[in-house]
Amino acid sequence: MRLAVGIEYRGSGFQGWQRQHGARSVQACVEEALGRVANHAVAVVTAGRTDSGVHATGQVVHFDTDSRRQAYGWQRGANSWLPGDVAVTWVCPVHDDFHARFSALSRSYRYVILNQKTRPGVLRGLVAWDYRPLDTQRMRNAALPLLGEHDFSGFRAAGCQAKSATRTLHALDVRRHGSWVCIDVRANAFLQHMVRNLVGVLAAIGAGERPQEWATEVLAGRNRRLGGVTAPACGLYLTAVEYPSPIGIPEPPEPIRFW
């Protein structure tokens, strides 16, 4: 049978999602925990690989097993073996043709910035910090031309291995909540560092260091060297993966917030 699993994790203590030799990864922790419950080796397929330091509240994976357990048994058993910075939030059976990555319609990320003069202490590693006063209206105006289907080569990492840089950006919203600036992004898929590079460009515009048109210029230039600084990983959260409704995947949790 095939099972889909919801996962949340604090990315600060991991070298990213993907299993790596000699490095702590979320994938290795999840596979080991599920394997202990299944009593056999488990290989999970993820909806989206996150980079080192990136968090998730709505990650989705699937795996195949011959072991029979109730959904809650899988969840409770896996959580008993997982470290404290990873948790299984739900488990449900799915059809054999379900694929965590290829069945997904979209992915959503939230980027959280503490926008004040002093750096965070308690929330270090969980949020980004920018001492520059950010004009969120300027950032929203700059983001509008980026919506839709485009070649996002100007916003991809230099080492990105995706065959095509064309993606469809469904939503890009910038909001302020007191000292917090929240950037919500939804697309059919993302390139490596795409969200963090988008945030880096928008933050420079919000700080008045670049004109509003700069985001469009970076998009049109299709060259990463034309873009700005990549925003730090600590502010980024994978919040949701959307699937067709008949599949029966549970609704994602409310996106992370600190206000």
Topology:
Layout: E1 2-9, H1 26-38, E2 45-46, E3 55-64, H2 71-81, E4 86-94, E5 106-114, E6 128-129, H3 136-143, E7 148-151, E8 166-177, E9 180-187, H4 194-206, H5 214-221, E10 236-242
Parallel strand pairs: 3-10, 5-6
Antiparallel strand pairs: 1-3, 1-4, 2-3, 5-9, 5-10, 7-8, 8-9
Helix pairs in contact: 1-2, 3-4
Task: Characterize the structure shown.
This protein is of the alpha+beta class and 259 residues long. The chain has two domains: 2-103, Alpha-Beta Plaits (2-Layer Sandwich), CATH 3.30.70; 106-238, Pseudouridine synthase I, catalytic domain, C-terminal subdomain (Alpha-Beta Plaits, 2-Layer Sandwich), CATH 3.30.70.660. The protein has five helices and ten strands; from the N terminus they run βαββαβββαβββααβ. Strands 1, 2, 3, 4, 5, 6, 7, 8, 9 and 10 form a ten-stranded mixed sheet that branches. A hairpin with a 2-residue loop joins strand 8 and strand 9 (180-187). Helix 1 (26-38) packs across helix 2 and helix 3 packs across helix 4 (194-206). The longest helix is centred in the N-terminal third of the chain and has 13 residues, at 26-38. It is globular, with a radius of gyration of 19 Å. The model has no long low-confidence stretch (mean pLDDT 96).
What characteristics describe this protein?
259 residues; Alpha-Beta Plaits; 2 domains; 10 strands; alpha+beta; globular
